[in-house]
Write the structure tokens for this entry.
Amino acid sequence: MLDEALCPAFFLENFMNETRVALSFQSDNLQRFIFDNAEIRGEWVHLHETWQNVISRREYPPAIQNLLGQMMAAAALLAATVKIDGRLVLQIKSSGPVTLMMVECTSQNTLRAFAQWDEDEEIIDNGSLAEITGEGNLAITIEMDGANTPYQGIVSLDGGSVAELLQTYFRQSEQLETQVWLSSNAHCVAGLLIQQLPSADEHNAQDAESWNRISQLSATVKDSELLDLGAGTLLHRLFHEEECRLLSLNTLEFACNCSRERVANTISLLGQQDAMNLVEEKGNIEVACEFCNEHYYFDKNEVVFIFIENSEGSVFNSETVH
Ligand SMILES: [Zn+2]
């Protein structure tokens, strides 16, 4: 009999077929846009399959799933504003019920995400950000390929929403006026961002007036419009009186870079004695990837082999066998 926990690909395919929804536009995209009549740029993101890949791997309470969805849309929007060559990680660390939430977006246009929470605590379905997370921080980490030190920005979790936290971050770190709207449901997640260009002059009356006008138009966006409309339709609906021009479109997808080799390397860090104690106690070492919930198993012989390989200075390398 097929064990679903051991064969997530099989499980996922069935799940995706059941939850596939008819969208009249191409989802899993990030659309950049600009205003020809104002010093303002924008981004729209919509994720369907990427999101289904995240929520089919672990069952989340509704409020946590909703927050994770907003964090995913936020990570995609943020990564596109900084144009990284590497990865951007959005992380909430808090007192609970949610204790840890991580979303990663890479310059290869891949996303992955997970949340951990205290299962003994009650989680209100429509709880506020404060009720779901308690006290803590939102950290924005950017790891550039080839750079030794990552960049990190931190915002205290005392806003009313993830969108407000992002706005605070942009105000503090970039000194750029930014407005963000994020929305999430069981089918998809979506987000809209508008931002003043660095060339905008805060003392210029025309730039200030343009910002007020376009941010007011943007603020009329409804959750249903974010979730159900494609970029062209939504932007036309919001900005048909402006000169809004679509720029590049990026396709995003779920991907996790965990591997049997990486897990073996982690086991080698335990030290031979502790690893052997663990395998003697349980019969094997089981490691689950937090991001994709893939389970890796190492029996006694395989653990012994990790340390033989390690002592010979070569890296454990084996095809994934689940
Ligand atoms: Zn993984």
Remarks:
- Residues 1-19, 314-322 have pLDDT under 50 and may be disordered.
- The longest helix spans residues 62-82.
